[in-house]
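Hi all, long-time lurker, first post. I run a small reading group and we've been trying to get comfortable going from sequence to structure in the token notation. Rather than ask abstract questions, I figured I'd post a concrete chain and ask someone more experienced to write out its structure so we can walk through it together at our next meeting. Sequence below, copied exactly:
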Amino acid sequence: MGDSTQQALDMILNQVNPCDSDGEEVTLDQSSDSEISSDEETSPPPEKRGRMETHEWLTETAKDGTVWREEQIGRPLHHSPIECNPMDGEPTAFARRKVSSRLQSFLCFISLQMLRTIQEWTVQHARQTQHGNWFMDLPELMAFIAILILRGIVRLPAVHDAWSATLGVPSISKIMAQNRTSCGTYASMTRTHAVNELQMTGLLQSLMFGGLSLPTALYIATKPDKFGIKFWVACDLKSKYVCNIIPYLGKDSSRPTGERLSENVVMKLMDPFMDKGRTVTTDNFFTSLSLAKRLLGRKTTLLGTINKIRRELPDSAKKTLDREEFSTQVFSTSGATLTVYAPKRRKTVCILSSMHSMVETGDTQKKKPNTVTDYNSLKCGVDVMDQMVRKYTVRSGTRRWPVAVFYNLIDISALNAHVLFQACTGVKERRSDFLVKLARELAQSHMAAKEVHKENLQQQPPTPDTGKRALCQVKCCCKNNHATKRCVSCNRFTCGKCRKEMLWQCQVCSDNL
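-- Answer (accepted) --
Happy to help. Here is the structure in token form:
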């Protein structure tokens, strides 16, 4: 029966003349009533190809010529990112051998050479503005740094409050007299010498406090300290260790023509850590597609928010009005992925990543993609470091920018010293306890020299020869009074107004001072 039916159809087709048609297409439909043998199978219909496989209408070209391809959420991307280094940063073998005390850890960041530079410029400034024979040795400068650290722990309003009758701290008054710190606060440095020697992974702009008359001082309204000197900082995510820091000193003549400032800064900060599989987290000031490709060439991945005004972004990623709440759109190009997420209606955030091989959304109500959740967990490095520095900061109001840089140098070095000391020795202690013990070690040599000097002075007679008079050398309560007696501690001529009456005291209490 099946053979006869097929023969009849062939005869009909042969008898049809195309010229007899009136122009309409002749179509033969096989009716369901036709008898077809059950042992014969119909040919399967042609398989429909999905739109994601053709990608013809899903590609989009940005203004700078970058071709983006829209990807399906949850599907592997066409590029495979490099493997990230899962190891945490550790101290070098040299640091482990060298660091055995808190002072040694601190001197890894503010070296003795840097302290000598600060001492030299401090003495020079003090001699120009105060006394021609004023001098400060290195132990006294270290003792002054110890006072600043202790003042930051107890949070005194100003340095001179440490010797106040109501707010004073006994441990500070034992280290140094107040009249010496009045000259110690003139610590000065050359413009970049001491800053560039300090070796410090999220990136951010860190603005240092100070109402400063400096050509490179900036005003940034979004920062807690709105006016001051800007520092570019690279910080470790886990330990908050400051890995690298660069001061902003205006236009850099060494920057190649046409290179963005943000790219130049990131490449400089990350240069010691390239080719190790690290990941850099940046904000929208730094993030760009060209930066992601440059870092990828050095085996370093990038994750960060990107500004929607960038020319390398597709136009559809910049549209916000027609997006639903908690919706996600994914684009990819060579070596990078762009995620457009709408946390609210008419608001989107763009995340550029070179570390993700797949973008998938979570099961929560907000349906956040993994690129957004990873960025939220990795972006806090510099912000938390800033908070930790502010908690025990030594900063104080000043209009001299070298002093402001000096305060910031101590803050960051003390934080790094705490992290390095714990990593090298395995001793876990609170940061406040570490700072107290560090201050004690910094002031130890000065206090020991002070005790030796005091013993030598006690062997001298408290009064000069009969008939000898001199002008008062203290002048804290007088102008130009004459004096015939010397102070038993510093051996300077002291008049009656500038002397201090001592209360009756036993020998045991005197020895405990």
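A couple of things your group might point at:
The mean pLDDT is 78.
DSSP finds 17 helices and 15 strands in the chain.
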